[in-house]
Amino acid sequence: MKQLIIDCGATKADWCVVVNKTTRNVRTPGFNLVQTPEEKLNEIIGEAAAQIGPGVEDIHLYAAGLLEKPAVDFGRWFPGASIEYASDMLGAARAVCGHNPGIAAILGTGANTCEYDGKNMGWKVDCGGFILGDEGSGAVLGKLFLTDFIKNYMPEELLKEVKETYPELNYLYIVRKVYGGEAPARFLGGFAPFILERYGKYEYVRNLVEGNFRNLFEKTLKQYKPLPVGVVGGFGYASREILREMGKTYGVTFSKFLATPAEGLVEFHAL
């Protein structure tokens, strides 16, 4: 059987082709089935389908913004395939918890969490997006960082590093990207690697990073049952040691960290 597991977030989409336990990955830009323009959506899906080829029989689609069956029919590109449409949150839960109860957390460009009983998603704290919430995400960290940058509210040496690394950055450029850009969350989250690289160098950066995660613990994770927390997402994976250490203060135990859910989902669907 030729199986296709799709995990799609705001920044990237991973298309994992599984044939007789052998996997092959295709990566495309991310998309949101509610927000991404149809023309762009068709372009991305068509690009992936061309690389994957014919013969797909079974598809599991996990995508950001997917609350119900999308208007776009993936059967157009993969005729005859059985298709499961599910949220990226369910995909994250299956990837890090498998068939066991736990708390699943997506910590990438955006952030999202839920309780999981080993089969279904349960109660969840609404994430709110990077404007109203998404505490603990890369986009929120980037937002906090750029807020201070435009106000010159950071150490002079760090301010110099930012300007040298991102010479295009100025007030007008930032405002246009955030308020009029095609993918503002992706733009903001793009600063997360630069920030994390300086976590041990500047007290300002350490306080910024830990403050972002502190809000995640206090406003979100503390509301759940005391179950192990599994984390999916490149930003969460890169910050795993920080999260583990901070978790001790809040009595939160982390069970697993995955940069992407693909490995966990392949294992889940193989059982």
Task: Give a written overview of the molecule.
With 271 residues, the chain is of the alpha/beta class. The chain has 12 helices and 9 strands. The strands form 2 sheets. The protein has a 5-stranded mixed β-sheet, with helices on both faces. Strand 1 (2-8) and strand 2 (12-19) form a beta hairpin. It starts with a strand and ends with a helix.
Task: Throw out a few tags for this protein.
271 residues, four-stranded mixed β-sheet, 12 helices, 9 strands
Q: Could you give the distance between the termini?
A: 14 Å
Supply Rg: 19 Å
Low-pLDDT stretches: none
The mean pLDDT is 88
Strand order of the largest sheet: 3-2-1-4-5
Principal-axis shape equals globular
- Beta-strand fraction estimate: 15-25%
Helix % is 40-55%
The tally of helices reads 12
Secondary structure blueprint with pairings:
Blueprint: E1 2-8, E2 12-19, E3 22-29, H1 38-52, E4 58-63, E5 82-87, H2 88-97, E6 102-107, E7 111-116, H3 129-132, H4 138-150, H5 156-165, H6 171-180, H7 184-189, H8 192-197, H9 203-219, E8 229-232, H10 234-238, H11 240-250, E9 254-258, H12 262-270
Parallel strand pairs: 1-4, 4-5, 6-8, 8-9
Antiparallel strand pairs: 1-2, 2-3, 6-7
Helix pairs in contact: 2-12, 9-11
